[in-house]
Automatic annotation (TrEMBL):
SUPFAM superfamilies, per the entry: ALDH-like
Domain Aldehyde dehydrogenase residue range list: 43-484
Protein name: Aldehyde dehydrogenase
Taxonomy, superkingdom: Bacteria
Family stated for the protein in its record: Belongs to the aldehyde dehydrogenase family.
Keywords: Oxidoreductase
Stored Pfam families: Aldedh (PF00171)
Organism: Flavihumibacter stibioxidans
């Protein structure tokens, strides 16, 4: 039995229209992936709401938006920023509670759970700085072709936000909070795993935002999200998860041309190890990239393409390091492999390993290829080829396939035929060879990392992907722009129009705050 107090979070509420609505129907039990021997540890329960209640949340969001003239969308940006800063200040008081639930719910190691919380706060403060920069640009009067114009950012309407289980706080809030900042109203449905950790924040959303601006519902995505989207009244979808689920969601919307989507989906990021790679130097990036949080990251290194001349040395070092990774409870010191949250995940990983072994691969590290309860041990497979499922499928777990190649064209071929195109990492030292490879793959992925693991940050950089890996781009600026439109106030450049435009709401508040700035493009 884990020597730690188990959270008990029974939360029979949803936040709808600024009120905590008590749900009297079915509840979903939330269990921890951490067990006490054969005993399942129950963490709490959340509502399994009906489609009718989901539609009430939609109505509340619509009412709060009120065709763009509701209280929240009508506020000038600096007032929305003030509200958000107050929310973030209160949110930090919940840090310990949220971190505790991240460990219990998805077995995230404590340093990673703390980092997820802190990074979310930092991301939002950086986003606010980006919004202030955008608003300062709105202060500038543009004159060109005899026209005076101001450009301002405007919300799009109701946005549905659905986050992932692996980064249920950070990945969700990096779309939800920017959409809020731009004046949209929100319906938020947390993921199946990593759901309880949002309950301490529900009261804060109720406290800081006007009624109906943030609506939080729990339960089945199929039951709740389908009718919301089918109504055609949602103008934006922020979804992070599987491409099949995203495609299913999108097809319900009756007017896709009126529907903005920002999707972060799966990946099969290759690590390309070139003949002159310094194995001692790259191994920390290799291990972290492949096994950090059990490899349950879209940015994880999911497959290694290793030049034949160094494959034996690479496999030896990789296997030795994989066998030393500490397996245990998320609050234990220096633990690296923890229990897997998803039901049936160890069986799925075992099926990938069995398929590869049946088709000629071997488990080359000592502890690999086995599981205990919800734990799957770090596993290195070699030689892997295109006939094996692990070559194509995103494993999202601590199983690492290694493919041997002789010519760089084989690497390019992998990326051409892959369903995914998020990132790639190149490990090597010859600038000519690396440059040639970059030229061949830079139109196949969204980011190329040199002697570094794949990653999302720093957050000012665009985070995107091709094919089934993403739709849209996330960064400090992009997340704000994804759920907003630019509106232009313009008129012929006459003295009368200058006076009218410079005194017209909602630009008056901006101009008073910034001072009139003229930018002449003639």
């Amino acid at each position: 039995m884990p020597v730690k107090k188990v959270p008990g979070v029974h939360f029979p509420y949803c936040l709808i229209g600024g009120e905590l609505v008590e749900w009297e129907g079915d509840m979903q039990t939330v269990n921890s992936p951490i067990s006490a021997g054969d005993e399942v540890i129950r963490l709490g329960s959340i509502p399994m709401v009906s489609a009718d209640l989901a539609m009430e949340a939609l109505h509340a969001a619509e009412t709060a938006y009120n065709n763009g003239i509701g209280e929240w969308p009508s506020l000038p940006a600096h007032r929305r920023i003030e509200v958000m800063l107050e929310f973030l200040e209160d949110m930090q008081t919940k840090r310990e509670e949220v971190v505790e639930l991240l460990m219990w719910e998805i077995a995230k190691p404590k340093p990673d759970a703390e980092k997820e919380f802190d990074r979310t706060i930092e991301y939002m403060r950086d986003t606010i700085r980006s919004l202030r920069t955008m608003e300062n640009q709105s202060c500038k009067a543009h004159t060109a072709g005899g026209v005076l114009a101001y450009v301002k950012w405007s919300p799009i309407g109701v946005v549905l936000c659905m986050g992932p289980y692996n980064y249920p706080l950070n990945e969700t809030f990096t779309t939800l909070l920017p959409a809020l900042l731009m004046g949209n109203t929100i319906i938020f449905k947390p993921p199946k795993y990593g759901v309880l950790l949002h309950t301490p924040l529900v009261e804060l959303f109720k406290k800081h935002f006007p009624p109906g601006v943030v609506n939080i519902i729990f339960g089945s995505g199929r039951t709740t999200s389908t009718p919301i989207l089918a109504s055609g009244k949602v103008k934006g979808l922020a979804f992070i998860g599987q491409s099949k689920a995203a495609a299913e969601l999108k097809k319900y919307h009756p007017k896709p041309h009126q529907f903005n989507t920002l999707l972060g989906l799966e990946a099969k990021n290759p690590a390309i190890v070139m003949p002159d790679a310094d194995l001692d130097e790259i191994m920390p990036e290799v291990i972290s990239g492949a096994f950090s949080f059990n490899g349950q990251r879209c940015t994880a290194l999911k497959i290694f393409l290793v030049h034949k001349s160094i494959s034996k040395q690479f496999l030896q070092r990789l296997s030795e390091k994989a066998d030393t990774l500490k397996i245990g409870l998320p609050w234990e010191d220096k633990v690296q492999i923890t229990a897997l949250p998803e039901d049936g995940k160890t069986d799925y990983l075992q099926s990938l390993v069995d398929d590869a072994v049946e088709k000629g691969a071997q488990v080359v590290n000592r502890v690999g290829g086995r599981s205990e309860g919800r734990y799957y041990f770090p596993t290195v497979l070699f030689p892997v080829n295109s006939n094996m499922r692990i070559y194509h499928e995103e494993q999202f777990g601590p199983v690492v396939p290694v493919v041997e190649y002789e010519d760089s064209s084989e690497v390019v071929d992998f990326l051409i035929h892959s369903h995914y195109g998020q990132q790639a990492s190149i490990f090597g030292n010859d600038p000519e060879q690396i440059g040639e490879l970059i030229n061949h793959i830079n139109n196949l992925v969204g980011r190329i990392n040199i002697n570094s693991q794949c990653q999302r940050g720093p957050d000012y950089l665009p985070f995107t992907g091709r094919k089934d890996s993403a739709q849209g781009t996330v960064s400090l600026n992009d997340a704000l722009e994804a759920f907003s439109l630019r509106v232009i106030l313009a008129g012929k450049l006459t003295d009368k129009n200058v006076e009218l435009i410079n005194n017209a709401a909602p630009f008056t508040n901006i101009l008073v705050a910034c001072g009139l700035q003229m930018e002449n493009h003639e």
